[in-house]
Amino acid sequence: MKFGKDSLRQLVKILVQVVNFMPLSKCELCSSQPLREVAISRWINDPSDVERLTIEICAKHYQRLNKSGTKGVKQRGYYYRIGFWS
């Protein structure tokens, strides 16, 4: 099957439009590409009053959260830790 130059140009234009409208996923804590989706606990002051979320985070933030353990990491006014159960 052969395509003419005009057909290829139209195809490229359509592909560019599709790519421009596709949402790009990013880390919830920065603008990097996410590594994985993680279940986290988030709170402001009291660690017993947690909000349980599932978010996408990058490798840098995953490593920081993993190292912090149950005490959590402060980011944007909230404390975050990996897992709902801790």
Strand order in the sheet with the most strands? 2-1-4-3
Beta-strand percent range: 25-35%
How many β-strand runs? Answer: 4
Strand count, sense and barrel status of the largest sheet are: 4 strands, antiparallel
In DSSP terms (H or I, runs of 4 or more residues), the helix count works out at 2
Q: Which of globular, elongated, flat, extended, rod-shaped describes the shape?
A: rod-shaped
Query: How large, in whole angstroms, is the Cα Rg?
Result: 20 Å
Give the uncertain stretches in residue-range form: none
**Helical content (DSSP H or I, runs of 4+):** 25-40%
Distance between the termini: 59 Å
Structural class, please? alpha+beta
Mean pLDDT: 84
Order of helices and strands: HEEHEE
Can you characterise this structure?
This protein is of the alpha+beta class. The chain has a domain of 59 residues. It has 2 helices and 4 strands, in the order αββαββ. The chain has a 4-stranded antiparallel β-sheet with strand order 2-1-4-3. β3 and β4 form a beta hairpin. The mean pLDDT is 84.
Describe the structure using short key phrases.
86 residues, alpha+beta, 2 helices
Helix-strand layout with pairing:
Blueprint: H1 5-21, E1 36-43, E2 51-57, H2 59-68, E3 73-75, E4 78-82
Antiparallel strand pairs: 1-2, 1-4, 3-4
Summarize the structure in short.
Strand 3 (73-75) and strand 4 form a beta hairpin. With 86 residues, the protein is an alpha+beta fold. Helices cover 31% and strands 27% of the residues.
